[in-house]
Every structure is written in C-alpha cells, then in structure tokens.
C-alpha cells in the first residue's frame, strides 16, 4: 500500500512550485493545471518507486513538462491540419423527413425501436439483432414487422398534419 502521508506531504510541499514551472512553460494556467494534475496522478500510482528517488519532485516535473509539451504538439498538429485542409464543412440541419422519422421512432415501444435501429440503421442481420437483444429470431421479426407498420401509420399521420390546407 502506498505511503499516503508521505505522498500528501510531498504534494503539499511541491505543488505550487511545480504548477508555477509548468505555467511558465505553457503560458496557460488551465493547461498547466491539467499537466500537473496528471503528473501527480502518475506519481501516486508509482509512489513506492518514485518516493525512493533522490528527487521525486524532479521526476514529477519531468513528467508534467513532457505532458505539457505533448499537448502543445498535439494542438500544433491540429492547427497545421486545419490550415492544410481548411475548416470542417458545417453539417446541414436535419430535414423535416428526418425529424418526422425520429419523432415517430420515439413513439414506438423500446423493443421495436431497438430492433429497427439495429436492423435498418446499423445494418445487422436478424440473427445478430436477436443475439444482441437476447430475443428469439421470431420475436425480432415480429418486432420489425410491428414496428414498420406502426411507423408507417405514424408517418402518414405526420404527413397529413403537415399538408397545407387545400
């Protein structure tokens, strides 16, 4: 079992110095806090070994600085990719048909909704749907059949409600 008191004393005695160091390194207090927190977590997980080092604070400082640099490199790589490929195209909002289908699906019983989603959206065969839902194949087929019929009725009603008055 790790030496809790020893780690607590080490943490209290070194946290401000370490945070100040990583803050100067990154220029971002939030990034520094994240890196220091992760470094202390790793030190705690290895405390029996780390506590035996000549300078445990140096070990945590190296880990925190490497974490901070790694995050910086990741952000830099993302920025370069953004410049190279441009902004991600915005995703258009769902059409009214999609909204109607989702609303109709929400009105189905959960078992039918799950069976329809697994079969039509995920593309699983009936046998796989049965395995995932722990239901017999015949039950899955019945749920699909009843779900399709219920959806057809719900969508027909939605279409009538949206039709302009003539």
From TrEMBL:
The keyword Mitochondrion does not apply. Keywords: DNA-binding, Sigma factor, Transcription, Transcription regulation. SUPFAM superfamilies: Sigma2 domain of RNA polymerase sigma factors (SSF88946), Sigma3 and sigma4 domains of RNA polymerase sigma factors (SSF88659). It holds the Pfam family Sigma70_r2. Residues 11-76 form the RNA polymerase sigma-70 region domain. The keyword Transport does not apply. GO terms for molecular function: DNA binding; sigma factor activity. GO terms for biological process: DNA-templated transcription initiation. Residues 101-151 form the RNA polymerase sigma factor 70 region 4 type domain. PANTHER family: ECF RNA POLYMERASE SIGMA FACTOR SIGM, RNA POLYMERASE ECF-TYPE SIGMA FACTO. Belongs to the sigma-70 factor family. ECF subfamily. This is SigE family RNA polymerase sigma factor. The lineage of its organism: Bacteria, Bacillati, Actinomycetota, Actinomycetes, Micromonosporales.
């Amino acid at each position: 079992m790790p030496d809790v008191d020893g780690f607590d004393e080490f943490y209290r005695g070194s946290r401000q110095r370490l945070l100040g160091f990583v803050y100067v390194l990154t220029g971002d207090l939030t990034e520094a806090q994240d890196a220091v927190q992760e470094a202390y977590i790793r030190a705690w997980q290895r405390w029996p070994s780390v506590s035996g080092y000549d300078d445990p604070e140096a070990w945590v400082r190296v880990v925190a600085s490497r974490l901070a640099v790694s995050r910086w490199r990741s952000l830099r790589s993302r920025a370069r990719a953004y410049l190279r490929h441009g902004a991600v195209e915005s995703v258009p909002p769902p059409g009214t048909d999609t909204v109607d289908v989702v609303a109709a699906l929400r009105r189905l019983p959960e078992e039918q909704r799950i069976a329809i989603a697994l079969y039509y959206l995920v593309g699983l065969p009936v046998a796989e749907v049965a395995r995932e839902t722990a239901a017999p194949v015949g039950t899955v087929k019945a749920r699909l059949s009843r779900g399709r019929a219920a959806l057809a009725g719900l969508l027909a009603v939605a279409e009538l409600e949206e039709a302009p008055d003539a």
